Amino acid sequence: MSSLSGPPKFADSYLIEVLDEFGLAIKYVRAAGNQLYYLDKTGAEVGVLDCASGFGSLMFGHNNPELVAHAKSVLDAQTPVHAQFAGYSYGIDVAAALNKIIRRELNTEDKYFALYANTGAEAVEVSIKHAELDRGIRIAELTAEVGLHVDQGRSAVATGATVSADAYALLGLAASADPAEGFERIAAEIGRRNAETSARQPLFLALEGGFHGKLASSVQLTYNEEFRLPFRALAAQARFVPLDRPDLIGKIVDDERAVLFDVAVEDGVVDLIERDFPVFTAFYVEPILGEAGIRPISTELAQAIREACDTAGCPLVADEIQCGMGRSGTFLASTQIGLRADYIVLAKSLGGGIAKTGTVLVHESRYRKDFELIHTSTFGKDGFSTLVALKVLEMLEAEDGLAYRLARERGAKAEAMLNAVRADFPDVVKEVRGLGLMLGIEFHDQGSSSSAEIRDWVEHEALAYVIGGHLLHRHRIRIFSTASSLNTMRFEPSIYLTDEEIAQFDAALRDVCGILRDQDASRFVTA
Ligand code: F0G
Q1: Residue 211: which of 295, 155, 106, 336 has the closest Cα?
Q2: Which atom of ligand 1 is the closest one to the Cα of 345?
Q3: pLDDT tens digits for range 58-115
């Protein structure tokens, strides 16, 4: 396999050192379909079944010939890759295609406006910025309304209205015999308190275990503390909701509730009223949590999230970066879970495995067109990636949605295989989860293994790497655990998964299960 000898590396040197401990530092030289190839000592190509699938971005496999031909034709035609700030972008066509698909799936005529980014995390950042712009505009509108009402209150007092005793009491002020003087003190206190509330840091809501990227803001929505905590000071924080406690969401929203004070004049009396302040920028949800160990959320949770967003007045953002684009068997995983989002974020497979692109679709009721002038990116929405994305959407929809059917049918076959292994090794495999071709195999925790070596690997968070190395060297299979659930292997091959590949995985998994059942660490081979 690959050799680590040679000139010093000025990139990835530590990463490669770590991977090499487990035999995972392989130099792949070619990729096609579900296979990655490396050269053995004789220079011959060796194929590896790739179940990691570009972290789930290869719905159509590596270097899909139809996509590659299309990409070449785009370049051969001297298509403008860069024509920023002009009268037309291919992003318009991608957005039209996305609207057609989403409207069909969600059974709606509603419009979704598309914003573009280069990666998944960047698309999440774009959605964060858009939602915060929207929140800021709503705060400004609310503040302007309060200002208008205060002026109305002042005029009312000038023409004989009185100020209610409650108004003074609620603000902790002494009542005044002179309504005009008293009202000015009330107006000043309202202004002071409202300014204080408006200056509060925004808050986000997200799910425990959720993963939304690793850029400065998006990483604060990513639950894993190792990724998130070192960067806490950089951006606004999220409150995380446990997946099995839909009932807690309402309580969290109540806990964080804040108000702006306003005045209302009725029957010659000026009174104080409370207006809900938009505390939350947005609620981020993966319909199938990927890094948390491939966990589809329950319909009860989806419903509780929707209700909480309606109560809090904040947008619900469905992060479909990993589970979307047909991987779950429908274009959006939200469709199967009954999650109705205000924003939908896509990336990974949108680029067909050959381009880098992401998009945020914003429901018309929430869209702030000013954002188009405020947010820009040199490469977001470039002609090459958007035309590749357009082709990807065309391929998904071709033959009346054959790709979705394949994701369901191949996924069901793979899932049946995994469940059969679980039935034979219930002491080793804890659970098989997922939808379509987004599947997870969770092993029982091996922390109290009778093998000291296995216990040691668990302690050093290395067992998943050992299993990965063994599957690679013994079975020519490439697979990783999910980032935040190390006991769960992520199985996300392309829709072209063959019966032979399923059988190959079956045999390999049974081998690993046998080793774990026997607690025989010596049988793991990582070289
Ligand atoms: N959201 C989800 C649900 C993801 O799975 C990922 C990436 C991102 C956002 C960020 O996208 O990497 O393009 O910036 N998940 C990778 C993974 C890291 O391991 O599946 P990105």
Answers
A1: 295
A2: 1
A3: 999 999 999 999 999 999 999 999 999 999 999 999 999 999 999 999 999 999 999 9
Cα–Cα distance, 371 to 272 (Å, whole number)? 35
Write out the E strands in 131-266: 162-163, 203-207, 238-241, 259-266
Around Cβ 69, how many Cβ atoms within 10 Å? 11
- Dihedral of CA atoms 322, 328, 332, 333 in degrees, nearest 10, equals -90
Nearest residue (by CA) to ligand 1, atom 5, is 322
Ligand 1 atom at shortest distance from the alpha carbon of 121: 14
Count of CB atoms situated within 10 Å of the CB of 133: 16
The predicted model scores a pTM of: 0.97
Token reading at 61: 């496999």
Distance from the alpha carbon of residue 124 to the mean position of ligand 1, in angstroms: 10
Contact 489, 441 (CB under 8 A): yes
Tokens of 127: 């959605």
Residue 345 · residue 318 · CB < 8 Å: yes
Pairing between β-strand 238-241 and β-strand 203-207 as defined by DSSP bridges: parallel
Where residue 3 falls among pLDDT bands split at 50, 70, 90? low
Q: Is the CB of 347 under 6 A from ligand 1?
A: yes
Residue type, 497: L
Ligand 1 centroid distance, CA of 216 (Å): 14
Radius of gyration of the chain (CA): 27
